Amino acid sequence: MEVFPYFGGILHPVISFIVSLSIIVFVHEYGHYIVGKWTGIKADVFSVGMGPVILSRVDKNGTTWQIAAIPFGGFVKFKGDANISSSHADFRSKSLNENDLRTTLHGAPLWARTATVAAGPIFNFVFSIAIFFMLFVSVGQVREPLTVSKINPLPFVNQLEKGDEIISISGYKIGSASSVSDMLENIEYDDPNSIKYEIRRDGEIYFVVGPPIDLPRVSGLVPLSAAVEANLNAGDVILEINGEPISKFNQLKEAVEKSSGSSIGLKVWRDATIFQTTIIPKREDIPQPEGGFITKWRIGIVGSIYPFDLLTEPIPLLQAVRLSVFQTYSIISSSINGLYHIIAGNISTCNLSGPVEIAEISSHMAKEGIQSFIQTLALFSAAIGFMNLLPIPVLDGGHLVFYAYEAIFKKPPNQKALSVLMTTGLTLVLFFMIFAIFNDYYC
After folding, report:
1. Which are the contacts of 64, defined by CB distance < 8 A and separation ≥ 6?
2. Which of 3, 88, 286, 427 could link 82 by a cystine bridge, Cβ 3.0 to 4.6 Å?
């Protein structure tokens, strides 16, 4: 079910972006706030959004919680801060007594300041892990023996029913999900409408005709991809490529790779109707496990080995935790690798997503449903946590560098030098934002 069904046109990506950003910023700033509170640092203001205040209230601790008119960003202004970036102490804080000075950010011990500043990105990472954990637990893993849970519309004879347990396909025994992958390397279809399935139904063994596996069927679409631009939908089945019949998803992948970006004619089946469309693959630089990138051509179609949905069962909790941490780590690792290669000039800056592209991705995933939208929140949260750890003044990473300097040299950085660095950092961040917006339009 679509997340924001009452907004269309340009409003949908705008609303999707605002909601996504507001949630992620709230998590980030709440990390600063709550750890600051735990370490004895008081907050004067917690704001979601910037600019004129729309709603506000003061809690029992004296913190003003507010929603501002400009829904881009947010901040926590701690006691003793001269501004919302926490880069300078208010000159009036020097007149505070020792106990009151301890409750300000700049008057707190180094360990408390470090923990408070680091908490923002850390909460972003924890938020991502929690979302992935929830998704792994709710979605689960494929149950064995493989059991049909949903019959999808297909242009093939299909005598399978919900609840059928798959014993064999075209004579190949199916003991587990991995055995299906092994079978794909050997199986060939003489007639895709006469695939024999051995199944167990209500305790009895039957032989029925079912659809071929590893079909060139669209099970999902990558946001902003060529497939989206070609108006393909989930559930579509690709019948022909440039006039040549295909029966396996791998044939589609090979044709796209060989195209080198030239247009491809597709014959598509959708809900018992057949139509023609043209798709133009997009270049993508893919990170490699050993480092570096290779160039691939992609159309943004997510496939599935199975032509039907399979029954799932709960995944073990420890395994879900492990997978969630690994998923978040992979996002951070890919971000580091990608940023390095963009700066080094090894890959195109078109691999960099700006606010316009992020808004479009949010909109696409919101249209896909609540699960896809939440998964996107996890991706963006991890990426924003990483970006905030970059050692650039005005970002959390820059503050942590200054704290490291203070820890090593037993004194804070020179205030004049700090002001220059903060101004330089702000300029860099603004330049990056403008560049990212232009990059969205011209790539």
Report:
1. 44, 45, 46, 56, 57, 58
2. 88
